[in-house]
Write a structure and sequence with these properties.
Blueprint: E1 4-7, H1 8-29, H2 38-47, H3 56-75, E2 77-79, H4 80-103, H5 111-132, H6 141-152, H7 157-180, H8 190-213, E3 214-217, H9 223-227, E4 230-232
Parallel strand pairs: 1-3
Antiparallel strand pairs: 2-4
């Protein structure tokens, strides 16, 4: 079977757009956001009550900055790509806020439209993550953490992704309790649990599909630039 070429730079672009649109769809569906963004979403819900200008996107890049610091402490090293990962987080956050404004125009009061939005959002997010895993350009900190830790400790990336998803889900539940009281599952609902359980598996299915039909190649000679500078023992 002859595979078509899919440039890794395109994988980055479509991956980021898919993640932003997917997150906006799931937020509008109100079945619970993805467990990956749940902690940032809870921070957004809490702080937006105090500061009306505070957006979901702002919460995202603030929380990802925190995760980036944790990652460097755990791995005891720094790469130039880590800084680009934060740039990616800001791009994603900006697209997320724009996407939420667009999706807000879609009627979603009835159950059926909400279910469609949730399914579209879930598939868009998982396809986006799979594409991000195929690019050398620094991904969001969420995906960077999964890639770097799984590579460092030689863990299957999809299994570690599922583990990380579950940890994020528990963190979201803890923040929901802390911010809104016991048993107030703000942002954490049945859709979040379903996503936590099958997110890693679904990403692996998209990966198999993409790699069956396309061969991922670099269109630009930038890979070494993103990977060459490493400072160990920080």
């Amino acid at each position: 079977m002859n595979k078509r070429t899919f440039y890794t730079e395109y994988a980055y672009i479509f991956g980021i757009i898919g993640l932003a649109m997917g997150t906006a769809f799931m937020e509008a569906a109100d079945f619970g956001v993805s467990m990956i963004v749940a902690p940032a979403y809870l921070i957004y819900l809490k702080l937006s009550q105090v500061w009306s200008f505070f957006t979901f996107g702002m919460a995202e890049y603030m929380f990802q900055a925190f995760l980036l610091i944790i990652l460097m402490i755990v791995l005891k090293r720094f790469k130039v790509s880590y800084l680009f990962s934060f740039v990616t987080a800001i791009i994603y956050a900006s697209l997320l806020d724009i996407s939420m404004d667009i999706v807000a125009l879609v009627p979603s009061e009835a159950f059926a439209p909400r279910l469609i939005l949730y399914c579209l959002g879930f598939l868009s997010c998982t396809a986006g993550v799979s594409l991000i895993f195929h690019t050398y350009i620094a991904p969001e900190v969420y995906e960077l953490l999964v890639k770097e830790v799984s590579a460092k400790y030689k863990i299957n990336i999809h299994k570690f992704k599922t583990f990380y998803d579950c940890v994020s889900c528990l963190a979201g539940i803890a923040l929901s309790f802390a911010f809104f009281g016991l048993w107030q599952f703000e942002g954490i609902k049945i859709g979040t649990i379903v996503c936590a359980l099958i997110n890693g598996w679904t990403i692996s299915r998209f990966t198999l599909f993409f790699e069956k039909h396309w061969e991922f190649k670099d269109g630009l000679r930038l890979r070494n630039y993103f990977q060459r500078t490493t400072i160990d023992n920080i």
